[in-house]
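Re: the 462-residue chain
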Amino acid sequence: MAQIFKRRIENRNQHMIFFTSMVILFITGYFKSVPKSWLHYLGNTTLFWSQFSAILHRLAAIAFIVSSLYHLKFLFMSSDGRSNFKNLIFTKQDIVDFFIHVFSSLGLTKKKLIRKRYYYNEKCDYWIMFQGTIIFIITGTILWLEEYFGKFAIDISYILHNKEALWGVYAIVVWHFFNLHPEFYLYAREDAQPCGRDECVFCGICDLLTQDKDSLNVFLSGDQKVDGLTKTYTLNLCIGDMLTRANKLREKGITSCKEGVAVLAADTTVCQYGCIGLGDCVLACRTHARYFDDKGRGMVDNSKCTGCEECIKICPRNLIIMYPKEKRVHIPCNSLDKGTKVREVCAVGCLGCGICVKFCPVQAITLSNNLAKIDYSKCIECGICAVKCPHKTIVDTTGPRAKVNILTKDCTGCSECVKVCPVKAIQPDTANAGKFIVLEDKCIGCKVCIDKCPTKCIKIKS
């Protein structure tokens, strides 16, 4: 966690230095490039006299170059930087998004642009700044060391440097502002987004719900579907001992999950399918919904998760999946090893024994390549698999389940409930011959017997 926050602070500081130096460069450069302006006159008579302005301009230039070099280091020498850079490259979809945005703005189509972190406007914004930075540095260096260059190079650099400065201001003030706030009225709701977040993270929910705030509120607060959508959460397919793995890597100076995969490939003492534990997903989460618990396990605060899927994209082992909000039973394991190997490296990994498959009353669990998987569309949340799992791999987050009770007067003694009870919690009632009773200390509240009872005499105990 310390490494993650350190990287976040470093990135934030780099951005602050970059933009602060840009502001200083523009202000001090303006006085120098437009000598007859009223701002120049005001500067010379107050604070920004010519000599001080020149010194401040060059100090800001040094800070600008250093922060730019740091950004290049981040882009090409870190896994999350390389991932971001890859996502910023233009694709065919950006052309489609451009025309959708234009036509929807003109009212020629009802189709909406699905906002995401890097859509075409943001990519243009970034690359304008990228090429502008290169021109700034090259031309500024020539002007600074003009005694080493000819008149032609100096004249061209002077023109490009000044024009690029003005273009940079237009890009920041006009283009960047328009990109971030094109339809600000959609997000105005008492200092928060319609979804309740402090800032928009471009998860696309607003656009998918056609900016209908009433439907959006229903969708975010309830389990029901709205416009074909279901609220989803993220789940880590690993709850093993990732702290040991992460510490091994940190001792070797490895701080990113992508780099850690290659390092651990030859280590037979750790699971080759499990979470690396260095927090690339935590760093990528812009709503701070993802975190590590005291055992180093990847966790998510679903009250903050927007389903933007940034964590899914950055995980090198594809260990993060989306699941429907209403589901509470999960198999958080991704290992394809056989049971004997799993036992050697993990205390909670799936053994591939198939017991959960055998006891699932609706065949929602399948076994493939030594790994059990749940089909959420079939699962009825009975929790039987979690009770029967010998390695306690299956997690049931429902909490204490309500027990059931048989109404003695309506029981016909057909024994259908006895046949389906997975834990043998239904036994003959000694006080009432021919009737059955539920042993409360054994009942797991799966409710399977309720569905099977022909007389509907089994009820949830209040």
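The radius of gyration is 31 Å.
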